[in-house]
């Protein structure tokens, strides 16, 4: 039985609720996803219930919850690859951190040692389960795919796939630095242990960003700030332009998007999602740089790339996504 959520409720279920509310059209301010059901969250629940012709009581029970989930099942925009840039995904990031951090910290050598995963895994390696989340090292096919795109620039021994997914069932990547001088563990939360290759390459690019930066979680900060910049610019443009307002990517990913990029610039002139997108698209100059950095080495170009949030205008003919 699911618990009712109402004014004063708090916790993971409220994170989830606020994130979903932010994905629905509204005349009210965007919610801060903080897990606290206050007056603003209540206002958004009332608005949603009226929109959907539900009894408007501001309380989230099975009917309102069901309608929230159902109306989220719109076809995802194909250019939006991961949930890393969605501030509303914070609840998922916190959940993964809270599940894995204590376990990783038990072992200086990380998850691989703890579960006895062999260095070169094989398809028969059983997944471990942590509080219901399945976790596994890359299988030989996935490793081959990683080496094809990244050369030897990734330390694959500390990268794992889980079957958890983020907002709108999109993948998201979390770096978990060890508190006891062990290596940083990277979890690619793909929604499946055998995800599509394109998605895997995109998330592996975030793993690369984590492994070649002094602060392994910097890519997450950069992604979220880029997204915030796009949203801040897009919202007022749509108020005056009906075509913009009617685009399915508006207001989060159209006309400005953190995934869009203009080819031909220096590596350091693209932000985190723009790099991940280009690795996925196999843009030659970007993948050449990716491959040229030795595993475990700090990359000044990566540091510059992740220091500035960036977006591009998808209405420009030279901009790709
Ligand atoms: Zn991404």
Describe the 3D structure.
The strands form two sheets. This protein has a five-stranded mixed sheet with strand order 1-2-3-5-4, sandwiched between helices. A two-stranded antiparallel ribbon has the order 6-7. The protein is built from twelve helices and seven strands. The protein is of the alpha+beta class and 321 residues long. It folds into three domains: 12-70, PGBD-like superfamily/PGBD (Muramoyl-pentapeptide Carboxypeptidase, domain 1, Orthogonal Bundle), CATH 1.10.101; 87-211, no CATH class; 220-313, no CATH class. The site of zinc ion has 7 residues, from helix 7 and helix 10.
Biggest β-sheet, characterized?
Answer: 5 strands, mixed
How are helices and strands ordered from N to C?
Answer: HHHHHEEHEEEHHHEHHHE
Class based on secondary structure composition and strand pairing: alpha+beta
- If you average the pLDDT, what whole number results? 88
In helices, the fraction of residues equals: 40-55%
- First and last CA, distance: 43 Å
Strand order of the largest sheet: 1-2-3-5-4
What compounds sit in this structure? Answer: zinc ion
How many helices in DSSP terms?
12
Percent strand: 5-15%
Number of DSSP E strands: 7
Oligomeric status of the shown chains?
A: single chain
What does the radius of gyration come to? 20 Å
Outline the low-pLDDT stretches: none
